[in-house]
Amino acid sequence: MEDDNQLTTLDVLHSMQETDRAFYQTLRFLDSDRERLLATHQRNTAMAMSLIRLHAVRGSRTVQYTATIPLTFPVGWDEPVVVHPTPAQIAAGSAVVTVEDAAPTNCSICQDSLSPTHTRLTHCGHRFHTSCIAEWFTQSVSCPMCRHDIRETRPPAPTSSDVESERPPMSSRLAAWLVGANPTNHTVETAESDEHHA
């Protein structure tokens, strides 16, 4: 019986040693995993902060951020470059129109109902709120619906009424406003306000 107790005690001690060994191996694994996860988290945080600063600098002409964390990832040559349309391309590719049709239409960008005065792209005829398409053109050169590149739209031939007009057409003023050519006037006028000036 004493041999059985001794054997049982040895088995229990051996089992405790195995349990301790497994516990400490798990702790070592968790420590190494914790360090790896912490390093990955710090790297990802630095990359995210760099992207936020990079986007803020690209997206705003007035807000400037200084880099406190260096860019920690390589920027490849194969990344897409944001191309902004020129004022002439915006003027040729869009026009502010007043539509009196009965069919209700929503702006494809914000999904709100269109007012009678809105912007229509000349090539495809898609219609948007003037402010929505103005914001869109700060990020893209294509129609949000059909992806037609507005830079490919040719300006219409000038007519005698265009030459005699003192004020540029709305699409030209929209284009100038988008690129900041007129820093003192940052509002987009509608065709209704144009009628009051005429």
TrEMBL record:
Residues 107-147 form the RING-type domain. This is RING-type domain-containing protein. The keyword Protease does not apply. It holds the Pfam family zf-RING_2. One of its GO terms (molecular function) is zinc ion binding. The lineage of its organism: unclassified sequences, metagenomes, organismal metagenomes. Residues 152-173 are annotated as: Disordered. The keyword Ribosomal protein does not apply. InterPro entries: Znf_RING, Znf_RING/FYVE/PHD. Keywords: Metal-binding, Zinc, Zinc-finger.
